[in-house]
Amino acid sequence: MHAEIFDRFHEAESRLHRLDPRVKVVVTVLFILSNALLPDGAWAAFGLSWLVLLGWNALSRLGVDFTFRRSFVALPFALAAVSAIFSPIGKPLADWSLGPLVLIPTDYGVIKFVSILLRSWISVQAAILLVAVTRFPDMIHAFEHLRVPGVLTTIVAFLYRYLFVLTDEVMRLLRARDSRSAAEPGRRSGRNVVWRACVAGNMAGQLFLRSYERSDRIYNAMLARGYDGHLRTLNPHVLHPSDWAYGAAAIFILILLQLVGRF
Amino acid sequence: MLYSPAPLHIPDGFLNLVISLLFWVITAATVGVAVSKTNKSLGEKQVPLMGIMAAFIFAAQMLNFPVMGGTSGHFLGGVLAAIVLGPWASVLVMTAVIALQGLLFQDGGLLAMGANIFNMGLLTAMIGYGLYRSVLSQSKGIRLAVAGGAAWLAVVAAALMTSLQLWLSGAAQLQIVIPAMLGVHVLIGIGEAIVTVAALAFIEQTRPDLLGQKATAEKGGGGWVVAGVIVSLLAVLLSPLASADPDGLERVAEDMGFLQLGQSAPYQILPDYTIPFLGETALSTIVAGTVGALVLLGLMIVLGNMLKRKSNQS
């Protein structure tokens, strides 16, 4: 089993952990929305957003730098935004010629680029915190309560459950490939790239059939245990007044953030 | 590392609000139709099946193969899912996969998820199923060749769409992002095509019943062929045009008003985020912000109810 790779929940005893998952999901989405709404170059507001995030980190008792340490996942994508630096709008700052290409960074472009990075960096941390303080089945139920179609939430719930089983299946396939492919040290086994891709394709086909046939057995086992198309939870998911209060306070803070960002 | 993120998942912060919401609306509408179709045509047994197929796509993305110099390609699986499961089911499966990747692994943002599902779920379903369905009665070789071509094209189309979304959001310059993204994904697409063809050939050999002509045709209407061909043509025509003449594309977009839509502030109804008759005061901004939030909330509730009603109609 590979629970440690896929389970992003971090056990702790905190108000944030106990908060109703609906409130957490809605506030996280609103926080990300708020970041998207902040104008470029609203440094004070970005800073405050980050402080809010630090506050939530502290509230979760997972450590103030908990999300920071995990926040570099979105960084590779920042490459895509590098070109925004060379926006035609704004004052030119320099003139770099790279062979036939002339790159002119502008002040508008640099502000835009840094703003995009900050936005994505802060937003990604909010999402990291959400999954760290919410058990995944609870989150699925939150989405159900938030009127996401039942078919979709059920598919995601199944996906999450069988991810672990199928990962084991993948590990078996990879181990089998490794033990078939003897190689001298320093040399790769097998033939050219196309051949290797074909092997991966056969493994994908094999995995598909194993999953497909397994789903039959799983379904029968579930039927035998009383499955009626609905996944149940023992958690009652009742919104307490304090949940409402936390949600309202968070929204109030987000409105303040927007005000700071615009003045 | 077991799970390596695919380079097409747009994180939050890169797309502006208009583009994010626009693609969320398109995606939510399509997924809503897929939900109602699934409820109508399939039994409850299909839901666990789709869940496990989603887990399959997720797990299959861990099957990497060494390419060169320490890099490795891995499988995306959208076209394989579209051909084997049919377009509607594959839209739901890919939605679930992208939702889990975004939620759990922050591989792709929440606000940007609409765009991500559109690029990797809807486009691949249209191209993959549409093109494959158009050659159903042909020989096995032709079918596999078309499936491979579709797998390649789906990756390229997703990369093209991602670049366009970034550009429309003002997060990238067209002249740079298009050649870079297309250049990388033209190569990634080749790996995807080989893996897809090999997997399909394997499945057809062991379980021919799953890929029968009749079974595949029943999974989606002929409209998918039209959509698939149109989207494929657009991708094929637009890619070279966009990389050879980005300025031309920019001009066309400007003439048609797309550029203003994306790059100007998203509050056309509430100019500069103030209410006209209240003047430019703090109160005005608060009111404008509240109105905006309420409108958004209303939109979400209406959409949610629509989807719920659809899912109840079964």
Kindly list the characteristics that best describe this protein.
heterodimer, A: 263 residues, mainly alpha, 2 domains, B: 314 residues, Arp2/3 complex 21 kDa subunit ARPC3, two-stranded antiparallel sheet, globular, disordered N terminus
Report on the structure:
The complex is a heterodimer of chains A (263) and B (314). By secondary structure, chain A is an all-alpha fold. Chain A folds into two domains: 3-82 and 116-134 and 236-262, no CATH class; 150-182 and 189-224, no CATH class. Chain A has eleven helices and two strands, in the order ααααααββααααα. Chain A has a two-stranded antiparallel ribbon. In chain A, a hairpin with a 2-residue loop joins β1 and β2. In chain A, α3 (21-37) packs antiparallel against α7 (107-133). Chain A starts with a helix and ends with a helix. The mean pLDDT of chain A is 83. Chain B is mainly α and 314 residues long. Chain B has two domains: 17-266, Orthogonal Bundle (Arp2/3 complex 21 kDa subunit ARPC3), CATH 1.10.1760; 270-314. Helices cover 72% and strands 3% of the residues of chain B. Chain B is built from twelve helices and two strands. Chain B has helices at 17-41, 46-60, 78-85, 87-105, 113-134, 140-168, 174-206, 213-218, 223-244, 246-256, 258-263, 282-312, and strands at 64-68, 71-74. In chain B, α3 (78-85) runs antiparallel to α4 and α3 (78-85) packs across α6. Chain B is globular, with a radius of gyration of 21 Å. Chain B starts with 16 loop residues before the first helix and ends with a helix. The model of chain B is unreliable at 1-5 and 261-280 (pLDDT under 50).
